[in-house]
Amino acid sequence: MKVLLLNGSPRGEGSNTLRLSRAFIKGLGADVQLREVVVRNEKINPCTGCFSCWHKTPGVCIWKDDMPAILEEYIAADLVIWSFPLYYFSMPSGIKALMDRLLPLNLPGIHRREDGGNSHPARYDLSQKKMVLISTCGFAARENNFEALKAQFDILYGRDDGYTSFFMPEGELMRVPELQERAQEYLGHMEQAGREYRTGGVAPATRAALNELLIPEERFLEGANR
Question: Where do the structural domains in the chain lie, given as residue ranges?
Fold first, then answer.
């Protein structure tokens, strides 16, 4: 199984979200062929909307940076894991630039989707590719927090079986020394999620364990504000 991990955290190796993603990957099994892209270490220019990748050089962007190699990895991967913290209820700018640069994977035509929206047809057959989204945030609340990010991935990859998501509030607590026992417990649930994902789907009990906060919201707010 070829896995592409897109680490979109500005903290790179210090990412709280990365710890969750690596636990999930560990659960996938020893036969995983992992390619990890640390977005902050890559040269990824912003899309200029020139559409040269559609008309002048089909499938090829004008920028001569690190993105062509990432696109090759993206196309070849069986599973792509998007790993990044929530920034202003969306994604950090680096990983957003990477997502924008996926444009060469599409053809310029427009068709109507079954959900009523419009989209561009795929240049390559990526129908068997699987997607996982893993994101943490610095708030304790789930409500009115991850919804905008989820909506974007729903449209991109499908609302039902198009991708699997894991959203974790209180992500900053993963680095608190006094809470490492609880953090390790949570990482164990993520590893279990990886095992279950590989064999057919994450069990409701594992989902329930991952939906539990590391500490109660009241305690979190008191400590954060102090």
Answer: 2-225
Amino acid at position 162, single letter:
G
Span between the terminal Cα atoms of the chain, in Å? 46
Q: How far are the Cα atoms of 75, 112, 155 from residue 117, in angstroms, in the given order?
A: 24, 6, 9
C-alpha span between 197 and 32 (Å, rounded)? 13
Going by C-alpha positions, the residue among 3, 18, 59, 47 that lies closest to residue 198 is: 3
The CATH superfamily label for domain 2-225 reads Flavodoxin domain (3.40.50.360)
Confirm whether pTM is higher than 0.90.
Answer: yes
- pLDDT tens by residue, 56-82: 999 999 999 999 999 999 999 999 999
**What are the residues whose beta carbons fall under 8 Å from the beta carbon of 7, sequence distance 6 or more?**
15, 17, 18, 21, 36, 37, 38, 39, 83, 84
> Which residue type sits at 211?
N
Contacts of 196 (CB under 8 A, 6+ apart): 27, 202, 203, 206
Residue 30 φ/ψ, nearest 5 degrees: -75, -15
Find all residues with CB under 8 Å of 63, minimum gap 6, and list them: 45, 101
